[in-house]
């Protein structure tokens, strides 16, 4: 990443024609540039309608400019935002003029990196900015917003405070052995370490939730051939995405689409029918279905309501449970005068009777999908915190250190060894918040951001 003392500029809105485009500037020259370009002193945090004049004095566009004085800005530096008309030509001319005046192009994520380096947010909050931009559902948006507002940082601060208190007690007996200290009592240290371990495990339990929110809940539609799996997919999507035919085995490969059901984002996967007698290409489709089942989060097991339920192949039978599977009894329009479907779901499984042809029963089915999707996710108290893979790595490191510390307390090991474990836990926590400086790690992390953020 280039020098953090430069004044940077970038387009902060997507490239292309739109009603408006926003160019963002941050750095020590932002206030001076505002005076040169607009010929007046901009009051901070006041949107001002004025003409943008380039280096030659020619008017480029009439714009709305807002100055944000540091440290009360997104980056913690003097910043300027210019909203011009959304012509790509105009936006390019404004950017070219800013570069001619001494700005340099911002790197990916450099505005957010400056916010982190200037103490406007910790590293977990900076990562939440990207989660917020990438959010595809109400739940993923809520989780990103809570972490951005400091929910994870607050929990981490509590863990760090507890470990610091324990470490201070331990190191007092290491550093001042000749002082008139009361007899060493490790019970209070043990309480604090145990509390930190519980908090660490609670945060680690949200790793799967983070994956579900960021990638979507992998929802696999399973069933024997010609039970209406593709029709169920089309009805949930609200479009004819999959080919539907009365001929068994129409679906030879899996089809994946993203869809929101209630507040949850799903990766909905239609698979080939589980035909035990399949051969050739159809067998390849069955194998793909089994591969998807092996990594699924949620199952829609579609049965023909007019026929007895067939046995499931062992790989599927070993993966489905009442907590992750909804039995969809399809083709209820063909039951005639029967009061109940012929197909009987396994004991304890939630079943929903539907007709994919008419759409009957799909409102209850979508409600049940949303309910079960909610049950797959873990919250921390009332807060929806979803850690990412990086957080989980360092939390796992901290957990090992805390478990080792408790073992040393129980074994009455020397205080120096106990202190080393506690410092190891603190270092791991520091990696999450960014308190441990690692410039290469920071550059790599912020390089994954989009330009202008």
Radius of gyration, Cα only, in angstroms? 29 Å
* CATH level 3 topology of the largest domain: Rossmann fold
User: How many separate helices?
Assistant: 15
Question: What is the quaternary state of this protein?
Answer: single chain
Helix/strand/pairing category: alpha/beta
- CATH classification, class level of the largest domain: Alpha Beta
Termini separation: 14 Å
List how many beta strands DSSP finds.
12
* Main pleated sheet: 6 strands, mixed
User: What is the beta-strand fraction?
Assistant: 15-25%
Q: Which consecutive residue ranges, at least 5 long each, have pLDDT under 50?
A: none
State the CATH superfamily name of the largest domain.
Answer: P-loop containing nucleotide triphosphate hydrolases
Write the layout of secondary structure elements.
Blueprint (H helix, E strand, L loop, with lengths): L7 E4 L8 E7 L3 H9 L9 E6 L5 E10 L10 E7 L2 H13 L3 E2 L4 H8 L5 H12 L3 H11 L2 H25 L11 H18 L2 H9 L1 E6 L6 H9 L17 E7 L2 E7 L9 H15 L3 E7 L9 H4 L7 E6 L19 E4 L8 H14 L13 H22 L4 H19 L5 H8 L7
Helix pairs in contact: 4-5, 6-7, 6-14, 7-13, 13-14
Describe the protein.
By secondary structure, this protein is α/β, with parallel strands linked by helices. It has 3 domains: 8-120, Probable tRNA modification gtpase trme, domain 1 (Gyrase A, domain 2, 2-Layer Sandwich), CATH 3.30.1360.120; 126-206 and 384-434, Four Helix Bundle (Hemerythrin (Met), subunit A), CATH 1.20.120.430; 216-375, P-loop containing nucleotide triphosphate hydrolases (Rossmann fold, 3-Layer(aba) Sandwich), CATH 3.40.50. Helix content is 43%, strand content 16%. The protein is built from 15 helices and 12 strands. It has helices spanning 30-38, 88-100, 110-117, 123-134, 138-148, 151-175, 187-204, 207-215, 229-237, 280-294, 314-317, 362-375, 389-410, 415-433, 439-446, and strands at 8-11, 20-26, 48-53, 59-68, 79-85, 104-105, 217-222, 255-261, 264-270, 298-304, 325-330, 350-353. The strands form 2 sheets. Strands 3-4-5-2-1-6 form a 6-stranded mixed β-sheet. β1 (8-11) and β2 (20-26) form a beta hairpin. α7 runs antiparallel to α13. The chain is flat, with a radius of gyration of 29 Å. The mean pLDDT is 88.
């Amino acid at each position: 990443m280039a020098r953090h003392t430069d004044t940077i500029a970038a387009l902060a809105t997507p490239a292309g024609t739109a009603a408006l485009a926003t160019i963002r500037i941050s750095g020590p020259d932002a206030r001076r540039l505002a005076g040169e370009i607009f010929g007046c002193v901009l009051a901070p945090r006041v949107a001002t309608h004025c003409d943008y004049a380039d280096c030659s004095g020619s008017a480029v566009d009439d714009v709305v400019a807002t100055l944000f004085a540091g440290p009360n800005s997104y980056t913690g530096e003097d910043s300027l935002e210019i909203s011009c008309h959304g012509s790509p030509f105009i936006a390019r001319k404004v950017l070219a003029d800013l570069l001619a005046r001494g700005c340099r192009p911002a790197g990916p994520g450099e505005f957010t990196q400056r916010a982190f380096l200037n103490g406007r947010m910790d590293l977990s909050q900076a990562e939440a900015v990207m989660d917020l931009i990438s959010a595809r559902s109400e739940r993923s948006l809520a989780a990103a917003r809570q972490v951005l507002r400091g929910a994870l940082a607050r929990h981490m601060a509590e863990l760090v405070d507890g470990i610091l208190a324990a470490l201070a007690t331990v190191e007092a007996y290491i550093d001042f052995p000749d002082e008139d200290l009361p007899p060493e009592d490790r019970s209070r240290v043990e309480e604090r370490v145990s509390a930190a371990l519980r908090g660490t495990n609670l945060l680690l339990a949200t790793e799967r939730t983070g994956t579900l929110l960021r990638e979507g809940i992998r929802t696999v539609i399973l069933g024997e051939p010609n039970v209406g799996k593709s029709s169920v997919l089309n009805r949930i999507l609200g479009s004819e995405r999959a080919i539907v035919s009365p001929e068994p085995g129409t679906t030879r490969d899996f089809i994946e689409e993203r869809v929101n059901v209630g507040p949850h984002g799903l990766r909905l996967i239609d698979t080939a029918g589980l035909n035990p007698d399949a051969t050739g290409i159809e067998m390849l489709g069955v194998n793909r279905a089994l591969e998807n089942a092996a990594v699924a989060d949620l199952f829609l097991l579609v049965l023909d309501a007019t026929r007895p339920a067939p046995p499931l192949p062992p790989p599927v039978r070993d993966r489905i449970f009442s907590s992750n599977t909804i039995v969809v009894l399809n083709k209820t329009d063909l039951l005639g005068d029967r009061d109940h479907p012929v197909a009987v779901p396994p004991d304890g499984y939630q079943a929903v009777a539907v007709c994919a042809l008419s759409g009957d029963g799909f409102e209850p089915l979508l409600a049940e999908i949303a309910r079960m999707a909610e049950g797959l996710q873990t919250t921390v108290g009332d807060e929806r915190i979803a850690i990412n893979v990086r957080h989980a790595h360092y939390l796992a490191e901290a957990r090992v250190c805390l478990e080792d510390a408790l073992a040393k307390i129980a074994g009455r090991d020397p205080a120096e060894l106990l202190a080393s474990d506690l410092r190891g836990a603190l270092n791991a926590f520091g990696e999450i918040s960014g308190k441990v400086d690692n410039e290469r790690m920071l550059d790599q992390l912020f390089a994954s951001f989009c330009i202008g953020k």
